[in-house]
Design brief:
Strand content: under 5%
Structural class: mainly alpha
Helix content: over 70%
Radius of gyration: 26 Å
Shape: globular
């Protein structure tokens, strides 16, 4: 391997480690633990009661992020220095709170103190991002910052009219289109709440519930351990916003299990990486990008979830098909049924953990805002955790049922009194637990969840703050129109070429950059151009979003593969290539959605068009699976694999008669394969 590739791989490994909240970073102990708890409490209070203006909440949110980051990753490993820098960084957030009225009155006219605070916060955000995520994202953002400062000296159409340092600092450090722009607003409201929601569910045992349920349902089937990885990671994606974090949580169990039952190490790692990254396109959380997308394009959040639902199911169906065919090709059986837990017993033991997720989805689809829905879901999770601890004190089943009915009636009061009713109920139960024997252990679990939520929020929040630099520069200079104009010009001759160019930009930018900043950057540059070329609004943004996710599976810098490598004890490059093969639908479905928007419930085709495109996609997935693994019911010959690949290509192409050709080729291949299997079975019976 060449030196540049080695350096790139080392950087990816570093990034994967830092983006994994529970791996490779110091523990939250002592004063830092309580700072994290206060951070989470601040976010809950501001989300529930809105006592401060949005501008102040964003600034204090960034201040908390910088404080925790510098204490957690102190310069020169000197903790006192980390506390000092963190305190200064936190003070920059308080500056917006203390001088809020003055800053509004003199908007656009910065004082010397304003300039000092603005320059300082920009520098601190850059350095915090480098410490927590590596150098890739800061380098990209620094390029845009330099363009804003010196772009007037560039030749031709690349040049802008020129802006002073005070204009740049005012735009980035004090405006609502810079560091404190829309990404930070979303991070300080929706994203943090949903991360806390997931942290509480994880502390309560949701990972165990998902794993036991998947293991009991599919563990005994052909290739069962790999199917467990697909299902459990998909379920984890409903509450967890980080694909890399999914790899190291569910992967600790599923990867060794797959290896023990005969899967190659790199394939096992590839399955887990593919399934975990797929969690980021699974509603309702969708790696937190859904909230940013909804704010960016001014579309209701529920519409984003509806558009993402079918592609997400097809993605996981692809992974399921691939592991099933790989198991058939290698003759891998499932686990003995007596070694698999009963899935319904797992549900019966932890059924109450499903209620907050169900209520969250119901509220979102009933038209409530994500902020309100997330707050109710979080408060209800706390109530259920406290209630489960209190219900154990009741000896008989009847008393436990009465207790839960009373808790349910009290929680339902939020319809009349709002989220304050559930928060009051949770605080009352916490007070009771304080005096109950063993109750303090439950309260400690809640405190740990608050601290873990703040810890999980660090990479997302710091990334959202830093990419504000790009948005601020693009807004100030209008540079996005240059790139969009080039794509539009290319698309006038070939929409496909524009899509391929956009895909490559997303994959390249995604090398080492988390999904959220990758989406923000590419949606600012490329999505408007696709919209101009006639691609529906949501589809154009989903296109860049999906390929931002695929970047984490694409070598040489595949963060999910690097996260899986130490668990699988295999080459991250090999894991990345296996993940690309397993996740083939993730690379193709966005193209299908552009040419057939009904796949994302867009356009005027109605359910008939949607059902047809889903049927076509399922047939294509089965063909891809056979072509990639060389197996259906029995091994496929080389020419059958080529035939299957060509047939799948015809089904994807949106040209006249291609559907008919593809379906005809698929039908002929299926009939031929069934005939060959029947003949082989007869010969086997004859010899027996």
């Amino acid at each position: 391997m060449s030196a540049p590739t080695d350096a790139l791989a080392a950087q990816a490994a570093h990034n994967a480690q830092l983006q994994t909240p529970d791996e490779g970073s110091p523990a939250f102990v002592g004063a830092l633990f309580w700072v994290a708890v206060v951070f989470s409490v601040f976010q809950i209070v501001t989300a529930a009661f809105s006592p401060l203006s949005s501008t102040v909440v964003r600034a204090v949110h960034v201040g908390f992020l910088l404080l925790v980051t510098y204490v957690l990753y102190p310069p020169a490993r000197q903790h006192w220095l980390g506390w000092c820098i963190g305190a200064v960084a936190f003070a920059t957030g308080l500056y917006h709170w203390v001088f809020e009225a003055e800053l509004v009155q003199r908007a656009g006219e910065l004082t010397s103190a304003d300039m000092a605070v603005g320059v300082l916060v920009i520098a601190l955000v850059f350095e915090a991002a480098r410490r927590i995520m590596g150098i890739a994202l800061p380098l990209v953002c620094a390029t845009f910052l330099l363009y804003g400062l010196f772009g007037q000296y560039l030749p031709g159409g690349l040049a802008h009219r020129g802006y002073g340092l005070d204009q740049i600092v005012g735009q980035l450090g004090f405006g609502t289109e810079g560091i404190y722009g829309t990404p930070t607003y979303v991070s300080s409201s929706y994203i943090f709440l949903f991360i806390l929601f997931g942290a509480f569910l994880e502390q309560a045992g949701m990972i165990t519930l998902f794993t036991d349920f998947a293991l009991g349902l599919f563990g005994h089937t052909k290739g069962g351990p790999a199917k467990v990885a697909v299902v459990s990671s998909g379920l984890m994606g409903t509450i967890n916003g980080s694909g890399v974090a999914n790899v190291v949580t569910t992967g600790q169990f599923t990867i060794p299990l797959m290896k023990r039952f005969g899967y190659k190490a790199e394939f096992a790692g590839g399955v887990e990486a593919t399934a975990s990254m797929g969690g980021q396109i699974m509603p309702p959380v969708m790696g937190a990008v859904a909230f940013i997308m909804a704010e960016t394009i001014d579309v209701p959040y529920v519409e984003i979830c509806k558009a993402a639902a079918i592609p997400a199911l097809l993605y996981f169906f692809t992974a399921f098909v691939m592991v099933h065919l790989e198991a058939g090709r290698r003759g891998l059986l499932g686990m003995p049924k007596d070694q698999c837990p009963n899935p319904w017993t797992a549900i019966r033991l932890r059924w109450y953990l499903i209620l907050p997720l169900a209520v969250l989805v119901w509220l979102l689809f009933s038209g409530y805002t994500p902020l309100f829905s997330g707050m109710v879901g979080l408060a209800l999770t706390v109530v259920l955790i406290f209630g489960a601890a209190m219900a154990q004190r009741f000896g008989t089943r009847v008393l436990q049922i009465i207790f839960w009915v009373l808790i349910g009636l009290a929680a339902s009061s939020f319809f009349k009194y709002g989220v304050s009713a559930i928060i009051a109920l949770a605080l009352g139960m916490a007070l009771v637990l304080w005096f109950l024997q063993g109750g303090k252990a439950t309260l400690k679990t809640a405190l740990n969840a608050l601290a873990e939520g703040a810890k999980h929020a660090l990479p997302v929040g710091v990334a959202c703050a830093l990419v504000g630099v790009i948005i601020g520069v693009l807004t100030l200079t209008g540079a996005a129109t240059l790139f969009a104009g080039y794509i539009i010009q290319l698309g006038q001759s070939s929409l496909l070429l524009s899509l391929v160019l956009t895909m490559l930009v997303c994959l390249v930018l995604g090398m080492g950059i988390p999904t959220i900043p990758n989406y923000i950057i590419t949606s600012s540059l490329a999505a408007p151009a696709l919209l101009e070329l006639g691609v529906p609004l949501i589809v154009s943004h989903m296109f860049v979003f999906y390929f931002g996710i695929m970047a984490d599976l694409t070598p040489p810098v595949a963060l999910a593969a690097f996260a899986a490598a130490p668990i699988a004890r295999a080459s991250p490059m090999k894991i990345g290539f296996e993940a690309m093969r397993i996740a083939i639908a993730g690379f193709v479905i966005p193209y299908m959605a552009v040419y057939a928007p009904a796949l994302m419930l867009q356009g005027d085709g109605g359910w008939g068009a949607t059902l047809y495109i889903v049927f076509k996609a399922i047939i294509a997935i089965l063909l891809w699976g056979g072509a990639a693994t060389g197996y259906w019911i029995q091994p496929l010959a080389w020419w059958e694999r080529v035939w299957a690949l060509v047939a799948a290509g015809f089904l994807v192409a949106a040209l006249p008669a291609t559907d008919e050709i593809g379906l005809g080729m698929a039908l002929l291949l299926a009939a031929w394969h069934a005939l060959r299997v029947r003949q082989a079975n007869r010969e086997q019976q004859a010899t027996a």
